Amino acid sequence: MQPTSTPLSPDARPDWRGVRTVAQTLNDFRTCIAVLVFYLIDAGLMALFCAFGAGNWASPMWIAGTGLVVAGGGAVLVHRFGGGRLDDPRLVIVQAGSALVVTLGVALFDPPLMALMLMTVIVIIPTAALRLAPGGLLSLCMVAAVASFAVVAAHGGRLTIPADTAAQQALSGMFLLWTLVKGASINLAGMALRMELNDSHERLAAALLRVEQLAERDELTGLPNRRRMQAALAEERERCSRNGVSFSVAMLDIDHFKRINDLYGHPMGDAVLRSVAQLMRTALRKPDLVGRVGGEEFLMILPGAARLEEAKHVVERVRAAIEGNDWSATRADLQVTASIGVAVGEPGESVESLFDRADRGLYLAKQGGRNQVAADTPRPH
Mapping DSSP to helix (H, G, I), strand (E, B) and coil, where does residue 361 land? Predict the structure, then answer.
């Protein structure tokens, strides 16, 4: 016995929003860890400066403590409220402000390290820029600039860097290299955000295109639906009016389609509709357009078919293709035919009038015995 599949109930379907939330939470935790690592590396370098006679031991302790508070506080918020909290501009301001306070504090109270700390300020601002709006970023830049100027002024305008010994020079070079690494990591993070934003835009554009296609396509046959065909008809009418040419339209109705549904069931009727749609696509010319505009009714737009004989010749191929199809492959006793009404557009004629004349032509084809092509000529003005 073959196993059967049961559609998932709404409660049993995967909650993709929950999956995205978990991913965001994990990403935020990784961000907190990265922030802590950055602070600890800064503190470690400051400790090495102190060990080689440049700086106060309070500086690395202050930096490490601030890192623990900032990263730990962020982790607590993520754990309690879930992912996405680190993007809150207010929290970004707090984090950037904390980094500025500790950095400029070290520069103020530990003069030998002042120039190195001011280099760090240059890294803090771009980090905040990744998640702040222009107004908030401008305010942060102004505060950082004023505070940095005040620190330099407090020391008489002198910028000092540890370089008295070879070890201090090497450490200063290491700190500069580390600052460049931090700047590069910020640039990479910005690139990742831009790529993610571009991907989001592309996915949104694809989704909107898909929605638009679904709104203009018949789900069963894959043909344009009535809404799309009405728009296409108006567009072709406008194009022909501009260029001084004409075109034709044709309405097709599957003969005795209700009987097919009643005798063989709606699944068989759906199969017939799909087959007829495919036969029409194959029989029509390349520039022609066909769509399903009703239950068993199809509309054909025939660009360039300015004469009735030409239009009849095109749609006669469609009728013959449906009649001549081997329907026994679908059901042994099944035979399908179609009636078609055709009309050639007249100068200045409205879309509604042309559509109505094609529909009257279809009526004439049915009245004449079905499985034929008929035309309704324009009525004299």
Answer: helix
Predicted confidence (pLDDT) per residue in 322-372, tens digit: 999 999 888 889 999 999 999 999 888 888 999 999 999 999 999 999 999
Mean pLDDT of 238-265: 93
Number of separate domains in the chain:
2
* Rounded Cα gap, residues 357 and 377, in angstroms: 7
Distance CA 197, CA 209 (A): 18
Same-domain check for residues 119 and 233: no
State how far the Cα of 335 lies from the Cα of 125, in Å rounded to an integer. Answer: 76
204 in the same domain as 233: no
| Cα 17 from Cα 270, distance rounded (Å) | 36
What count of other Cβ atoms lies within 10 Å of the Cβ of residue 166?
A: 9
Alpha helices by DSSP H, 82-133: 89-109, 114-129
Q: Widest CA span of the chain, in angstroms?
A: 109
Residue 202 makes CB contacts below 8 A (sequence gap 6+) with none
| CATH code at position 252 | 3.30.70.270
Within-domain flag for 355 = yes
Cα 372 from Cα 369, distance rounded (Å): 8
Strands across the sheet containing 289-292: 289-292, 297-303, 247-254, 338-344, 373-375
Residue 326 belongs to a domain:
yes
